[in-house]
Design brief:
Layout (H helix, E strand, L loop, with lengths): L2 H45 L7 H6 L2 E26 L10 E25 L2 H9 L2 E2 L6 E3 L18 E7 L2 E4 L6 E4 L1 H8 L5 H5 L9 H21 L1 H11 L3 H5 L35
Parallel strand pairs: 4-5
Antiparallel strand pairs: 1-2, 2-5, 2-7, 3-7, 5-6
Helix pairs in contact: 1-6
Length: 292
């Protein structure tokens, strides 16, 4: 191959690689900003105990969705649109890397204006999580959704027993309160996922830590923030202490009550040996021959 042709091919290949890296970098910046905003929302909510997600819900959650700066606009016919992020709790109780999602919904009524709010959804069943992974998910239709209570120590809710599959909150103008989101649709943002985790990445691969590309520090920061918030919720509830007490209560009663017997070490001495009477073993005498 002529040297000129080789140089042209090399330049073309370099240009293609540079273009791909620049495209990835631009996409990564957009997703990183979304992750940072999600961390901000979670941090702000948990910073005020009166506005925080109840410890029970956060501790027992199967998944959480955070959609920062959801835009709600309307003039008789309204709509809602937001780009968020979703993490799933693994069987061992830790949080997965987050997947990117979108939230869309419509409404009809007498309304006007534009409002920006942060939306948080807490899932308490695996059914809703599976539905999102496998396709679109409609709140209220595919699973019951209720306006979430606020306050870390909240012990009551609309149904009294936290039985709703999904609990939802919204923060607008600094106020954090439960919100009804029936009819809103959650779906996976495949473009954002592939920009962050690599081509061909599926939500299940992300949740199972099988993505071909490691996420950025900003994306991982959301997972770490969820770990910290959940650990605090468990500490507040005493979940760890309860588990330890349960393990102790389930222990074998024999093992718990059996006395510990310590056998002292014994030292064998000559004085402890039995004494043989002389008459039982009389001494014998014998005359020696005279010396030469």
């Amino acid at each position: 191959m002529p040297a000129t042709t080789r140089r042209v091919l090399t330049l073309a290949l370099s240009a293609a690689m540079l273009a791909a890296s620049l495209q990835s970098a631009v996409a990564g910046v957009r997703e990183d900003e979304r992750a940072r905003n999600a961390v901000r929302v979670l941090t702000d909510i948990q910073a005020i105990p009166e506005n925080a997600i109840p410890d029970k819900l956060l501790d027992e959650a199967k998944a959480i969705v955070i959609v920062p700066d959801t835009i709600k606009a309307g003039l008789v016919i309204g709509g809602r649109r937001g780009h968020g992020i979703m993490a799933v709790k693994s069987p061992d109780g830790t949080w997965s890397n987050p997947s990117f999602v979108t939230l869309t919904g419509g409404s009809i009524g007498f309304q006007a204006g534009v409002q920006s709010s942060d939306v948080v959804l807490v899932f308490r069943s695996d059914r809703g999580v599976d539905s999102i992974v496998n396709g679109k998910f409609t709140l209220g239709a595919d699973a019951a959704v209720a306006a979430g209570p606020v306050g870390r120590n909240a012990a009551t809710a609309t149904d009294g027993q936290f039985k709703a599959e999904i609990w939802s909150w919204s923060r607008a103008r600094g106020l954090f309160a439960g919100v009804a989101l029936d009819g809103a649709v959650l779906s996976i943002d495949d473009g954002a996922n592939q920009a962050t985790y690599g081509e061909g990445t599926t939500p299940r691969m992300i949740f199972e830590n099988r993505a071909t590309q490691a996420p950025s520090a900003d994306v991982v920061a959301l997972r770490d923030q969820l770990e910290e918030a959940t650990a605090q919720a468990r500490a507040n509830r005493g979940t760890g202490a309860t588990a330890a007490a349960g393990a102790t209560a389930n222990a074998s009663p024999v093992a718990a009550t059996a006395p510990v017997i310590v056998t002292p070490a014994t030292t064998t001495t000559t004085a402890s040996m039995p004494v043989v009477p002389v008459e039982d073993a009389p001494a014998r005498t014998e005359t020696l021959p005279p010396a030469p």
